[in-house]
């Protein structure tokens, strides 16, 4: 079992729709969860982070965390073509791995006009 | 507030050569991280520093790899006797020290081994 698994892509949604990106993780010690967006050929860009169970909203983005289920998701409302990118889920290590991020393989999102 | 700066942006070298990359973190960030990313994969953790102390190293960091952060500011990552498999994007990130702070990435150094 991989440490971090993301829903296999590519994910294609029409402009204006909701894109749903999912991530499960194996390290129960993880305390913080980060979502990064990566455009082709560029470096990862932080878009959301969440520490507590429940939802966290920031503009068109909502992160959802369920530590009991070891599940974190990212919803993008009113998707735009500029949202087309790879989305990386990264639990932050707790316990003995403080500071280290373990990334999933990423989900490629395509928003078509 | 300048972001994380990495130099060079691209490096092409022949197999067997040594290469060194530099990373300048965001000025108030005490933590500095190195990751490696290959095509189609997420970044893989290599090592991280808190100030000048190297606190964790991945098993990916073979004896040919060494990282330093001598004064707790910029860091260097050296790869000796490069191999084809070292071709990747090398990413540096930095963060504040308090709790689990978000890491902010530089633009990366793309290494190509001929």
Report on this model:
- Chain A is an all-beta fold and 113 residues long.
- Chain A is 0% helix and 51% strand.
- In chain A, the strands form two sheets. Chain A has a five-stranded antiparallel sheet with strand order 1-3-8-7-6, with no helix packed on it.
- Chain A is globular and about 40 Å long.
- Chain B has 114 residues and is mainly beta.
- In chain B, strands 2, 4, 5, 6, 9, 10 and 11 form a seven-stranded mixed sheet that branches.
- Chain B is globular and about 40 Å long.
Strand content of chain B is: over 45%
The major pleated sheet of chain A works out as: 5 strands, antiparallel
Secondary-structure content class of chain A: mainly beta
Cα-atom radius of gyration of chain B: 13 Å
Tell me the number of strands of chain B. Answer: 11
Q: Helical stretch count of chain A? A: 0
Q: What is the residue-averaged pLDDT of chain A?
A: 91
How would you sum up the global shape of chain A?
A: globular
């Amino acid at each position: 079992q991989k440490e971090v698994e993301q829903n296999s892509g590519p994910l294609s949604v029409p402009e204006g729709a909701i894109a749903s990106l999912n991530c499960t993780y194996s390290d129960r010690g993880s305390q913080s969860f980060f979502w990064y967006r990566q455009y082709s050929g560029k470096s990862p860009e932080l878009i959301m982070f969440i520490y507590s169970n429940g939802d966290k909203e920031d503009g068109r983005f909502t992160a959802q965390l369920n530590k009991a289920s070891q599940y974190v998701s990212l919803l993008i409302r009113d998707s735009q073509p500029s949202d087309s990118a790879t989305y990386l889920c990264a639990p932050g290590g707790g316990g003995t791995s403080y500071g280290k991020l373990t990334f999933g393989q990423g989900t490629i999102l395509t928003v078509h006009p | 507030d300048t972001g994380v700066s990495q130099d060079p942006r691209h490096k092409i070298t022949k197999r067997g050569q040594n290469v060194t990359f530099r990373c300048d973190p965001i000025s108030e960030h005490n933590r500095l991280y190195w990751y490696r990313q290959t095509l189609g994969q997420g970044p893989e953790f290599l090592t991280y520093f808190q100030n000048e102390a190297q606190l964790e190293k991945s098993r990916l960091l073979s004896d040919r790899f060494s990282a330093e952060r001598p004064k707790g500011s910029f860091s260097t990552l050296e790869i000796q006797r490069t191999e084809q498999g070292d071709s990747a994007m090398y990413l540096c990130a930095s963060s504040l020290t308090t709790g689990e702070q978000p890491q902010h990435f530089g633009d990366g150094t793309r290494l190509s081994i001929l």
